[in-house]
Amino acid sequence: MNDKPGKKITPALDALELLKADHDKVRGLFREFEDLKDIDDEDGRKGRLVDEICREVATHTMIEDEIFYPLLRSVIDDDDLMDEAGIEHAGARELIGQLETMFPGDDHYDATVTVLGEEIAHHIEKEECDMFDAARNAGLDLDELGAQLATRKEELDDGLPAQDIPAEAVAPRGSARQAQRPPN
Ligand SMILES: [Fe+2]
């Protein structure tokens, strides 16, 4: 019982477990969509599901863009891997932006969700293989990083503004890396 007032309680997942849990949730939501696509959205279920997909993907890509990707980029020597992942995130945001202006029943609505799902599935596969291995081998403090990701995720879910990430807290020993934040 030593928690200070205001201290955030975060789930005890390390960074890769937390990101994997997000991936599994998103994969499940896209599977649910497969059962609903090509049918009329009379009860609004499809629209609500797609809203949830867009929210989950947007929050997940944001915590990766703000925290995980800059940190990983600074400790591995593979700019191509990080550049491609960043472009894939931009592609997902583009499709989410399109879906935000569409309604179930619109031309290309189902096709847009399907393409988003295919692109996300490819992106997740690459991330869980190449990036997760790189993160494990880089000597990062994955528990501390997991706590930071969880806290930021809670903030985004609560609609709170961005905060500076004390990235040095999770840097491997001896790293002179500075906190980095991509341009908005
Ligand atoms: Fe991810």
From TrEMBL:
Pfam families: Hemerythrin. InterPro entries: Hemerythrin-like (IPR012312). CDD domains: Hr-like (cd12108). Gene3D superfamilies: nmb1532 protein domain like. Residues 15-134 form the Hemerythrin-like domain. Residues 153-184 are annotated as: Disordered. This is Hemerythrin domain-containing protein. It comes from Massilia cavernae.
